[in-house]
Structures are given as structure tokens and as C-alpha cells.
Write a structure and sequence with these properties.
alpha+beta; 2 domains; five-stranded antiparallel β-sheet
Length: 123
Amino acid sequence: MTTTLKNSTQSSESSIVHWQPAIWQDYLNYRDDLASEITSYRLFFNVNQLLITDMGGEGLNHSRFTELISLVLSLWSMQFSGQELTSCGRTLLEKPETRAASPDLVFYLGADIPVWQKLQILL
């Protein structure tokens, strides 16, 4: 089963997004094709459903809010120096064949922080 989608499933006239039926290979094809795009896309896959959103540039309010969250968590980690906190924002997280997402911010708390290595798949 394959699907054909526009580059964005989000209408410029509406903030409603639409998930489309897809298989993991469809997701991989879009992921690899969109990697060469200049504009900013967010790509999501959840159990045979695909969502592509054209994020454009971050708005000022959105940017300020994400920076505020990073600042608050950084201050928190300085108060509790025994806890290891790592920020991995604006990355692509994948659980092959099942899920993928590209969140604004990702924070890992603790010592078992995943480290990417070439040809390694983290589950």
C-alpha cells in the first residue's frame, strides 16, 4: 500500500491537519526527500498514518516559549546538580515501522541518554 500526498496536509485556510493512510516506506521516502528541502517541514508517522506539516519559520511567540522552557529546565538542573539533563531539540525520533516524530524540544533526564552511532537504530 502506498499513498500520494501533497507536501503539506495542512490547509493554509485552516489550522486543521489531516493524517493520511501510509506505510513505513512512504514515511521513509518523504523523510529522505524533505531532507533536501530548504523550507521547514515536520514529519510524523503513527501506526500507518502519515502527517506532513509545513512549519515555515518559527513565530516569535513560539520561539520565545520554547526558549523559556529550555531556560527553566536549565535553571532546574543547576539546582539539582545530581541529575543529568540533556536537551536534544529539533531532532527526528523514530521507532521503525511504528512511530516517528519531530518535536520542538526533547529533554532526557538521567544517565541513560541515547547516543546516535552510525548504522545504529535506537528503540
